[in-house]
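Budget justification note: compute hours in this period were largely spent on complex prediction jobs such as the one shown. Inputs:
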Amino acid sequence: RKEVEQDPGPFNVPEGATVAFNCTYSNSASQSFFWYRQDCRKEPKLLMSVYSSGNEDGRFTAQLNRASQYISLLIRDSKLSDSATYLCVAHNAGNMLTFGGGTRLMVKP
Amino acid sequence: GAVVSQHPSWVICKSGTSVKIECRSLDFQATTMFWYRQFPKQSLMLMATSNEGSKATYEQGVEKDKFLINHASLTLSTLTVTSAHPEDSSFYICSASLPQLFSNQPQHFGDGTRLSIL
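Corresponding output:
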């Protein structure tokens, strides 16, 4: 079983739609979590950190449920420019990052 | 602005060639750098952790004699793919750790190197 699991998608949604991605992790000792965005043939870029209390950054909301070992990302009012692969990432001891397989989003006009 | 610089961004070479990829931390000292590999439609997989002044720590299944890592200074780590073959074609990405005091994320990534072996 992978340490961080995501539905690979693709999620095909129209502009303006709300879309939610889920992620589960198996290492209960993971210290913190992040969502990264990766465009084709580019390096991953930090989208946002994930907190148990939930956090929001504009159209993006992330949530962590430690009891269920579950992380979510909600994107409201999808834009064409949101099309990318979204990576769920666990931060472990030694500053190590473990990446999920990524969820591909395609926003269409 | 970029805090980690990776070079080259794209390499195409013949089978059997050795390829060196450089990863530099800009304006900060990185005692630890990480090397990842990403195959098409797959996620980033950690290959090794590069420690300044000591041997790299390789992940299970990664051949240390094939992927030579040198971290001779606090701002430069290099990955050399020795005698590269078509199956080594991949996207190689490095990252460097910043002290948490100075960053909102545990690692900063280079732009990646796309390696194509013919």
